[in-house]
């Protein structure tokens, strides 16, 4: 009797793959280029080759849970500040970062994690009824479930809700172009700035992530911000931060916000201490010295590093304490109320009032 090939019931067809001469199939969604025999899953675990050797997505419509978060938690500080975002993820990831801060989801190979059945229409309806201005693909990387993310994004846009991607940006050019055509905002991790760090600590390559960032800046209207999680001794040297900030200023310009966030020991990296607040402040100073206008420190209480300052007159235009807004000095067009300089981003006359709350949501309550 031949070997049983897993059939992946409920999986959906995908587009970015091709057959190899040796009978395997190559997935072309991300630069891992997994080469799969029928029945095999890719490194991300959620894409797999079916009996016919076609790459399918096995998690369409299944989620690891929903929560309403502040948009500042993504983090996005210049995209409808103070509003709430309905956040969800699936399972799996296409990187293998040993410092992962969401490892229970991203490394999940257990289907019981994927409890909520969630059609795109139900997600959009839930977001609307909950008063969320955006829906975020987060907790794990939407690159690996892009067909589902795109359908959810379209349903959200049809309901006037913004689709937001939280991603590592590790994606190939063709799926990248399709994916971002459906997104209104993104936060992209730039996990470090050496190829060695990406290879040894994340199991990926830096160049593909830089390409995504430059693509977003030059080829799209997607509002995006960038996050670097600083890990003591691994990616926080003056030399590495200087190289990152010089490249950032040159290729992305001064108006793309950059967040330096604090690491907490987790997953396979429990022997490294948490990031000292002084390290975040040092990184912020290096970035500002390179001309970046909006540089933030995250996962700490830091009045200066958490707030937005007018690049022309220095007025504190948005004050923040962690995810809470403490001050608002912008007019209806997002201009500094002291000097009239435009602040980059998407703003409205009033800040949102969601605050720092986190509200778990049972999606079944919103099914039609
Ligand atoms: S998306 Fe998944 S299956 Fe495809 S190449 Fe990347 S890790 Fe492999």
Characteristic terms for this protein:
alpha/beta, 9 helices, binds iron/sulfur cluster, about 375 residues, globular, nine-stranded mixed sheet, three-stranded antiparallel sheet
Characterization of this structure:
The protein has 368 residues and is α/β, with parallel strands linked by helices. Helix 2 crosses helix 3 and helix 7 packs across helix 8. The protein has a 9-stranded mixed β-sheet. It has a 3-stranded antiparallel β-sheet with strand order 1-6-5, with no helix packed on it. The protein has a 3-stranded antiparallel β-sheet with strand order 2-3-4, with no helix packed on it. The chain binds iron/sulfur cluster. The site of iron/sulfur cluster (SF4) has 12 residues, from loops.
Q: Report the end-to-end length measured between terminal Cα atoms.
A: 46 Å
Major beta-sheet overview: 9 strands, mixed
Number of strands: 20
Give the integer mean of the pLDDT values: 93
Radius of gyration: 21 Å
Helix/strand class = alpha/beta
Strand order of the largest sheet: 16-15-14-13-12-11-9-8-20
Topology:
Elements: E1 12-13, E2 17-19, E3 25-27, E4 35-36, E5 47-49, E6 55-57, E7 62-63, E8 66-70, E9 84-88, H1 103-106, E10 116-117, H2 120-129, E11 134-137, H3 146-158, E12 162-167, H4 173-180, E13 185-189, H5 195-202, H6 206-219, E14 223-230, H7 238-251, E15 258-262, H8 277-289, E16 295-298, H9 303-306, E17 308-309, E18 316-321, E19 324-328, E20 359-361
Parallel strand pairs: 9-11, 11-12, 12-13, 13-14, 14-15, 15-16
Antiparallel strand pairs: 1-6, 2-3, 3-4, 5-6, 7-10, 8-9, 8-20, 17-18, 18-19
The structure holds iron/sulfur cluster (SF4).
Iron/sulfur cluster binds next to loops.
